[in-house]
């Protein structure tokens, strides 16, 4: 028996919105610790990893570890039926064929339940080493979204350069080129959420496809901050912490000059 | 072409070996493309004319066929744009044993030619269409055109010493390429780890990947048994036993292990074993045999020496009915020699003075599959270079009369696909740690009866093998 209840049901909506354009089908693994999901896009260029701790739910019970094969677009359709302030409860049997979703309106006047058919999905699991990154940039998620959106108009590939002074996002395309530099905020600048912080051991410069960064920024509504982790010649990690429950992290392989 | 009925047999007996992927799935992978097969496909598929008139191949002003060029140009760009790095492998000389198969094809051509004439007289468009497709041949000129085009596009190619499939398989086996793209199923008989179908075909059909290892597991065979199965089912190198189809071939191989034992056990009345499958005694001039060395040690030399001065002997000996087959067999022995020692238990019979046991045709076919003539794959290296823009324009627009706009947009795509940088795959950084569907629950669900699956998992578009 698996049961998980989220008072803030809209959170689930946002999470699915943040994943479904990148990954169409995924296995969500439920265990005592919570929910995890790891899935790659069709080109195996990027990976999305979701982690929701059991403590973050209002009620969580998982007697036996199960894996739910979900079509995320279809799950999104069902979640559209939930009101934004509904309480959402997920339920599944020990050997499930379906996932039950129950939506309760805050005043308990409306209760609806839906069943989503599960699928057998065979996916490759990648072992991601727990490594220290040379650069970690923490910045407002809205700012990152805007940079990615702006640069994507000009070109396909974005060069991200991280130095002590700041982070530079550069792009060049047929119509011209552009750079956006974000500087480290001085400690005095107002709200911590709006600050740009850079922790750096050595400068890093890497190239990434803006198309994928654009997919990642679908997670912007999940939190006010985004963290970028980079080391030379390895995939970037774009991490969106989700307040009180966990995080969603995206990995993107760099573009590398081979000649 | 290929092994008769193998695709269906795999789909029936080892469905887990076949997977469908989008083209993007192969982003960043190097793929060996069986060029001769691709050219043939283009020649068949890329035609113009519809409605009342019979479709014909694309030609330029001078009337030269250009379908293959058009196809190769567009498909290669499509592959490159999806991040796939293709290497084209061309056929070299046909293997000697294929003589029979080639003869058959020639006969078919001649028949098609006369049928086409008939259809033209009768103005039967449909029939004209069908017969003219049968007449399509990927010849030397077409290959040369394509090689030139690839060169200009900056895409590597090589010519196999013999069969392209064998060379492709060898490249894939040592990991020089990730997979082999061809429609020809005998590529699997050469133990290609991954075979991709539909790579060069038109449209957005998903690519079918056949996993060799999973296929063997599903069929329950070893590699040697699989080769025997393919020979029984009917390959390009030899005829097969009439009355044995894919299913019964699999049953027989599973029951008896190899062709030798199958032949011992099947009823000779029911099945007609082709005469060339039976071991034959052949009389040779004793002088052509080195008296001291046992023939089994150096069958190669023996064959060579026998050839020139041996015509009389050939005529007087038990001879195959078909002219030319004799010589081919001789050469085939070379290839067969290596495996012959293991597979032919009656080998010692060879050393009888003046008599030579001729290898049954299936043993030679087997040898061609086990020890094909190939370039050492480890020594081959491929480079994708900048396309030669001026050269492409001169070749395609000026000499072949292609539409300049299309050629230019093609070249632009070609350049864009090369870009300055190569998008890496994530799995080149993180190693797979197993698949997530191996959890006990999913396995249970997989084993669940099909009926339950049907009712349980269809509606939300989640059909998945």
UniProtKB/TrEMBL annotation, chain A:
Keyword Nucleus: yes
BP term (GO), one: translesion synthesis
UniProt main location, coarse: nucleus
Family annotation (CDD domains): PCNA (cd00577)
A single MF term (Gene Ontology): DNA binding
Domain Proliferating cell nuclear antigen PCNA C-terminal: residue ranges: 127-255
Subcellular location: Nucleus
Source species, domain of life: Eukaryota
Ranges of residues in domain Proliferating cell nuclear antigen PCNA N-terminal: 1-123
UniProt keywords, alphabetically: DNA replication, DNA-binding, Nucleus
GO CC list: PCNA complex
Pfam families per UniProt: PCNA_C, PCNA_N
Record-linked PANTHER family: PROLIFERATING CELL NUCLEAR ANTIGEN
Family: Belongs to the PCNA family.
Function: This protein is an auxiliary protein of DNA polymerase delta and is involved in the control of eukaryotic DNA replication by increasing the polymerase's processivity during elongation of the leading strand.
Name this protein carries in UniProt: DNA sliding clamp PCNA
Organism whose genome encodes this protein: Nannochloropsis salina CCMP1776
TrEMBL record, chain B:
Catalytic activity, EC: 3.1.-.-
SUPFAM superfamilies xref list: 5' to 3' exonuclease, C-terminal subdomain, PIN domain-like
Major site of localization recorded for this protein: nucleus
GO biological process entries: base-excision repair; DNA replication, removal of RNA primer
InterPro entries, per the entry: 5-3_exonuclease, 5-3_exonuclease_C_sf, Flap_endonuc, HhH2, PIN-like_dom_sf, XPG-I_dom, XPG/Rad2, XPG_CS
Top-level taxon of the source organism: Eukaryota
This protein's GO CC annotations: mitochondrion; nucleolus; nucleoplasm
Keyword Mitochondrion belongs to the record: yes
Compositionally biased tracts (Low complexity): 433-442
Coiled coil: none
Compartment(s) of residence: Nucleus, Nucleolus; Nucleus, Nucleoplasm; Mitochondrion
Ranges of Pro residues composition bias in the record: 288-297
GO molecular function: 5'-3' exonuclease activity; 5'-flap endonuclease activity; DNA binding; magnesium ion binding
Protein name per UniProt: Flap endonuclease 1
UniProt source species: Nannochloropsis gaditana
